[in-house]
Write a structure and sequence with these properties.
The complex is a heterodimer of chains A (115) and B (113). Chain A is 0% helix and 58% strand. With 115 residues, chain A is mostly beta strands. In chain A, the strands form 2 sheets. In chain A, strands 2, 4, 5, 9, 10 and 11 form a 6-stranded mixed beta sheet that branches. In chain A, strands 1-3-8-7-6 form a 5-stranded antiparallel beta sheet, with no helix packed on it. Chain A is globular, with a radius of gyration of 14 Å. The model of chain A has no long low-confidence stretch (mean pLDDT 94). Chain B has 113 residues and is mainly beta. Chain B has strands spanning 4-7, 10-13, 18-25, 31-37, 44-50, 53-57, 64-70, 73-79, 87-94, 103-104, 108-112. Chain B starts with a strand and ends with a strand. The chains are: A mainly beta (115), B mainly beta (113). Chains A and B meet through strand 4, strand 5, strand 9 and strand 10 of A and strand 5 and strand 10 of B.
Chain lengths: 115, 113
Amino acid sequence: GENVEQHPSTLSVQEGDSAVIKCTYSDSASNYFPWYKQELGKRPQLIIDIRSNVGEKKDQRIAVTLNKTAKHFSLHITETQPEDSAVYFCAALLISGAGSYQLTFGKGTKLSVIP
Amino acid sequence: DTEVTQTPKHLVMGMTNKKSLKCEQHMGHRAMYWYKQKAKKPPELMFVYSYEKLSINESVPSRFSPECPNSSLLNLHLHALQPEDSALYLCASSQVARGAEQYFGPGTRLTVT
């Protein structure tokens, strides 16, 4: 099965600074890597994703990079704002033996943006 | 409609009770999922339904019984739960395809007393 490692577990940044969260995965067959943001008491919300045929993707202040050779991917948030404070989960998608698609999550990073 | 709905939002049940959690989506997705999430932990996959058939059961105890009556609905039947089963139960759905986004419902906060 897939194993996803995520670092750091907590991250505090000053408002306006950048934040970087890194993940590694174990199974080279994984081909889709979403990032979810979860605020306290709410559902995980997909914020950006990247597929294995792409090296980088950007959406306004958020970007994700993927290095297939090294099996790692990263989330970059620029010009952080207090509303970016949340827990962020990376994940990797793998097709199971039963033919279904299975997401494996990292353990999460609690991001705090200090005003 | 890009929303997954879940009922109830909160549920408190005793260890001898039988209850059900419900999930619904109208996005035409043919894969639906149940996850369990404990505080400060990532979602943990329990079951996957693909085209209304159970395709993954992650060694979940039999006191949890999933059901997919049609392509829009997913239920989770609960019986004789333990206090350690208290958690947020999340439903999700997606297309059955490589790289398909999973959309999560708001979850049911379950407390077992």
